[in-house]
Amino acid sequence: MARKPTTKSEFVLFDVFYDDGSRRSNRRVPRDLLEGLDGDEPARAVLEAQDREIADRSGRPMPVIKSVKRSA
Prior knowledge:
3 strands
């Protein structure tokens, strides 16, 4: 039986590593922001904005992002 073609996901998943040694996996970034010549660099800005929103809502500061890598 033939497989159905898969649809392209609207998001790319990233693992985020912080200065304090913590890691958050499968953070979502819109795929259309990553299709330019900058590669994955715009993902960091999106993830930092998400962290600011999380910090505002939780009332706790988020650690500084050390590195960002696509999830496998």
